[in-house]
From TrEMBL:
InterPro entries: EF-hand-dom_pair, EF_Hand_1_Ca_BS, EF_hand_dom, EF_hand_pair_protein_CML-like. CDD domains: EFh. It comes from the Eukaryota. Potential calcium sensor. Keywords: Calcium, Metal-binding, Repeat. This is Calmodulin-like protein 7.
Length: 128
């Protein structure tokens, strides 16, 4: 994405529901849902889908720390801890979150499973 600093600041202000100056994961999910709900057609729809895929890939990459295309229990825990969420401290909590979206049963989340979770209104702790 190519945006000026002022455009990024404007986007943060619009999306920052809790006023902490940051876009947290729940606020990001709201953005993804808004993108998904936005109508359009033809070239605009294609462009929107490309932008949505790029945003989802960037979000996935935050969790996929070793860039192997999979989110492991350890990677999920590490990200949750870095966000200050207590669920990251408990391996069983992380395993349970992954099981909720792990369609192929390999104990990890691949990009397709991540996209499915996000398109179904997934939230970091409750659905992931």
């Amino acid at each position: 994405m190519f945006m000026t600093e002022s455009e990024v600041e404007e986007m943060v202000v619009k999306l920052d529901a809790n006023g902490d100056g940051l876009i947290d994961f729940d606020e990001f999910c709201i953005l993804c849902k808004a993108i998904d709900d936005d109508g359009g057609g033809g070239g605009e729809e294609f462009k929107r889908l490309g932008e949505e895929a790029e945003i989802l890939k960037e979000a996935f990459d935050v969790f996929d720390r070793d860039k192997d295309g999979l989110i492991t229990v350890e990677e999920l825990g590490s990200v949750l801890c870095s966000l200050g969420l207590k669920e990251g401290d408990k391996i069983e909590d992380c395993k349970a979150m992954i099981r909720k979206v792990d369609i192929d049963g390999d104990g990890m989340v691949n990009f397709d499973e991540f996209k499915t979770m996000m398109k179904n209104g997934g939230r970091l702790v409750s659905a992931f």
